[in-house]
Design goal:
Length: about 260
């Protein structure tokens, strides 16, 4: 097996790993800032598809706006959490490469924290298929802002050799001039998410590369994360942390 094939196999294993950590994902993952969601939906109609919806972190924010929401998620464990958390949404099994809704049936497709997993050769035309003409494809990622000392230290714990990119991965495929979408627009929103130490540990435990670690290695890493929260001078005064994020957003309109 070549190194490229080994990398592809490991990536596929990580992509399928979330069933094992659906509970931790629900407890630890942050929502998305309202400003970012508003920007992505600007000018779109009420029929919204949350693609790769996970446990419904974005889905519940969409239904709270009174939108007509369909949530598509491949993981059975995630869908169980999603259906329980957001009963107002239609929850369907599916992937970005095979979206289980009719053509031209939604006004916006939003993909939160998931586009870097997809096969863009299939996902871009599939998103265009389900969107009404002029509809919006919106992609967003919450990225830890490591300009703070403690988040920088957390980043070194999680990725001693530097974190692989996720934000923006695959967006170039949306911006192809001959493709079904118009110009790709971008927006960045800085914000902070309040969480407890246990939620911080769950946040780390819900990362795909942590889920797939050998148990001893995973246990050691999570203990280090907990110790960071307990001993860091900036955090020791209380049990509530404020994680700084930059939410990076991308949107493009389906050509008429």
């Amino acid at each position: 097996m070549t190194s490229g094939e080994a990398h592809a196999d490991e990536r596929a294993r990580q992509a399928k790993s979330f069933d094992a950590a659906a509970d931790a994902y629900e407890r630890g993952r942050p929502p998305y800032p309202g400003e970012a969601v508003t920007w992505l939906l600007d000018g779109a109609g009420p029929r919204v598809l949350d693609l790769g919806a996970g446990t419904g972190k974005l889905t519940r924010q969409l239904t709270a706006r009174g939108l007509d929401v369909t949530a598509v998620e491949p993981s059975a464990g995630m869908r169980g959490q999603l259906a329980a958390a957001v009963p107002q949404a239609r929850v369907l099994e599916g992937t970005a490469e095979a979206i289980p809704v009719p053509g031209s049936s939604v006004d916006a497709v939003l993909v939160a924290q998931a586009w870097h997993w997809v096969d863009t050769r299939r996902a871009v035309p599939e998103a265009a298929r389900v969107l009404a003409p002029g509809g919006t494809l919106g992609l967003l990622w919450n990225i830890r802002d490591e300009r703070d000392d403690w988040t920088a230290e957390l980043g070194r714990l999680l990725h001693p050799e530097g974190a692989p990119p996720t934000s923006g991965v695959g967006t170039s495929a949306v911006a192809e001039r001959s493709g079904p979408f118009g110009a790709l627009e971008t927006c960045a929103v800085e914000w902070r998410h309040e969480l407890g130490i246990g939620e911080l540990v769950d946040l780390v435990a819900s990362r795909s590369y942590v889920i797939t670690m050998p148990e001893a290695q995973r246990t050691h890493l999570l203990a280090q994360v907990r110790q960071l929260a307990l001993r860091h001078p900036g955090l020791s005064a209380g049990d509530r942390l404020h994680m700084p994020y930059v939410t990076r957003c991308y949107r493009a309109r389906r050509r008429a």
